[in-house]
Amino acid sequence: MTRDFSLQVPIKYGSAYTWGMDTETLRGLVDPEMHEWLDNVLDMCNAPYAIENGIELVSAGKSKVVMRKTVAPSDLNSNGVVHGAASYGLIDHAFAVICNMDSRTVGLSCNVIYYRPCFGEVMEAEAKLINESKTLMTVEVTLHSEGKLIASATCIGFKARKPER
User: Fold this and answer.
1) Any idea which architecture 5-161 has in CATH?
2) Can you give the pLDDT of all 165 residues of the chain as single tens digits?
3) What are the residue boundaries of the structural domains of the chain, listed by start?
């Protein structure tokens, strides 16, 4: 699978340009009730880590975020399966997006359980907000590939502050 750069815009990081998501494309992927926070979601989707690792937003709402990653040859370990770091990166970024839409949150912990190796070409992470208090967010993330559950994670984030709009 190849990335569709027609839906992306060039973004400058340092002296280099890369491809990132534009606001209009993002608007179609984000629940209208979260449109006031589009700038925050756009920042997360265009974060250097997400761009460099091919992590893309599929959909986003207050209580659920879905992100996708096409597996690259550099994502494979010495056994020819997806490296745990590549799958964790997708889990962590889905967690980050759901937590940082309407607050500035930092990760406190993430407990990942791997059920099977990933042999698929595409991984998809679904992050669901399961509890939110004044200072903490608890998120359950499931990782699937080719219709199979690869891993699940329970992640806890600390709300550092509300972002400026």
Assistant:
1) Roll (3.10)
2) 444 444 455 554 444 444 577 888 888 898 889 888 888 888 888 888 998 899 999 999 999 999 999 999 999 999 999 999 999 999 999 999 999 988 899 999 999 999 999 999 999 999 999 999 999 999 999 999 999 999 999 999 999 976 565
3) 5-161
Dig out the tokens for 119 from the structure.
């042999």
Query: How far is Cα 59 from Cα 61, in angstroms, rounded to an integer?
Result: 7
* Those residues with Cβ within 8 angstroms of residue 135's Cβ, 6 or more apart along the chain or in another chain: 158, 159
Q: What is the pTM of this model?
A: 0.85
Region of 51 (left: φ > 0; alpha: ψ -120 to 50; beta: rest) is alpha
In the sheet that holds 64-70, the strands lie side by side as: 55-60, 64-70, 122-132, 136-145, 148-161, 104-114
Q: Which residues contact 140 (CB under 8 A, 6 or more apart)?
A: 127, 128, 130, 152, 153, 154, 155
